[in-house]
């Protein structure tokens, strides 16, 4: 009776239904690998490394964070897609591998719809920054500078087909400018080049780039979004400055390999909910401008479907075809 009650509670909590096989009592019996297809040091990496020990202590095994960068997230995503569906390899990623790459890469080494949805977790506050030495103090002034210097300014993204690549090309089209695209393995590498004077515009989450803004090493000019943020009340949303510019999905989510058993999904989802709602994590969201999502697996699947449609529309408008 106790076992069936526990299973029913887990099923109700995650919305997965009640027809579930029993969760193996031994899970987890070894460390869980958390694959992150982005570079270390960015805000979402900081988030994951802060969350991991809280989850690990509760679930009884460590979560080992592992950065697998390259190909706009495809390398890390492929590693999880091809992993055994035993709950010991989990993907924590931006929307890029599951909603953008299907539109921009001809022969993906994985099926973006094949991953097991676990949770839509967070949406970071992304700040657009520029090189401090530029003769521009605002987003509007940067655009005016770009109009006067077509093809001479540059922006960095986290790779072809990434959220930031889509925004950069939409900015070019909407504002009537020509800022050159420079793809990197991670946005922080582009930010490093902004500080070195080699790149003109880039992006970063407030959690990762905030100290650089305060130190004057980069200049914040806008929030990459459709509304202002309470932690940066004087910073305009980019859509206030450039009406009509497209904003791609910016959420981050947890996914499992294909055919991950539902009892494991339920267990891991429940542990994430507990850990992400601790006072420590809530305070961190508020300080760093993160929005907590905490979706069910079904809600994440709906987010993916909407994201696929959004990216498809944006790419069609920009006339970007799979490579």
Written overview of the protein:
This protein is α/β, with parallel strands linked by helices and 323 residues long. The protein has 2 domains: 2-124 and 250-318, Bordetella uptake gene, domain 1 (D-Maltodextrin-Binding Protein, domain 2); 126-241, D-Maltodextrin-Binding Protein, domain 2. 43% of the residues lie in helices and 17% in strands. The chain has helices spanning 2-14, 43-59, 74-81, 96-104, 139-148, 163-175, 187-195, 206-214, 238-241, 262-276, 279-288, 297-318; strands spanning 32-36, 63-67, 89-94, 116-123, 126-130, 154-157, 180-183, 201-205, 219-223, 252-256, 291-292. A 6-stranded mixed sheet has the order 2-1-3-10-4-11, with helices on both faces. It has a 3-stranded antiparallel sheet with strand order 8-5-9. Helix 6 (163-175) links the parallel strand 6 (154-157) and strand 7 (180-183).
Mean pLDDT across the residues is 90
- What proportion of the residues is helical, as a percent range? 40-55%
- Reported by name, the CATH topology of the largest domain is D-Maltodextrin-Binding Protein, domain 2
**Which of globular, elongated, flat, extended, rod-shaped describes the shape?**
globular
**Strand content bin:** 15-25%
Query: First CA to last CA: what distance?
Result: 55 Å
């Amino acid at each position: 009776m106790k076992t069936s009650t526990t299973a029913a509670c887990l099923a109700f909590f995650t919305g997965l239904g009640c027809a579930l096989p029993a969760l193996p009592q031994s899970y987890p019996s070894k460390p869980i690998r958390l694959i992150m297809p982005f570079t270390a040091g960015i805000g979402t990496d900081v988030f994951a490394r802060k969350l991991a020990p809280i989850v690990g202590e509760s679930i009884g095994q460590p979560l080992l964070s592992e950065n697998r960068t390259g190909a706009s997230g495809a390398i890390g995503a492929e590693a999880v897609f091809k992993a055994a569906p035993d709950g010991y390899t989990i993907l924590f990623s931006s929307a890029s591998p599951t909603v953008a790459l299907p539109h921009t890469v001809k022969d993906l080494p994985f099926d973006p719809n094949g991953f097991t949805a676990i949770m839509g977790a967070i949406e970071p506050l992304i700040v657009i920054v520029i090189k401090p030495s530029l003769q521009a103090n605002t987003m509007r002034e940067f655009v005016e500078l770009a109009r006067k210097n077509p093809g001479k300014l540059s922006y960095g993204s986290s790779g072809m087909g990434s959220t930031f690549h889509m925004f950069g090309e939409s900015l070019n089209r909407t504002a009537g400018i020509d800022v050159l695209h420079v793809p990197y393995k991670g946005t922080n590498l582009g930010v490093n080049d902004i500080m070195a004077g080699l790149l003109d515009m880039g992006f970063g989450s407030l959690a990762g780039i905030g100290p650089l803004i305060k130190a004057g090493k980069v200049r914040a000019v806008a929030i990459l979004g459709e509304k202002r943020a309470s932690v940066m009340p004087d910073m305009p949303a980019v859509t206030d400055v450039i009406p009509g510019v497209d904003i791609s999905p910016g959420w981050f989510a947890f996914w499992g390999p294909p055919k991950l058993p539902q009892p494991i999904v339920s267990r891991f989802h429940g542990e994430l909910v507990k850990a992400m709602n601790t006072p420590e994590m809530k305070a961190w969201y508020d300080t760093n401008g993160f929005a907590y999502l905490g979706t069910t697996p079904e809600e994440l699947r709906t987010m993916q479907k909407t994201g696929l449609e959004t990216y498809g529309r944006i790419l069609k408008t920009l006339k970007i075809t799979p490579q």
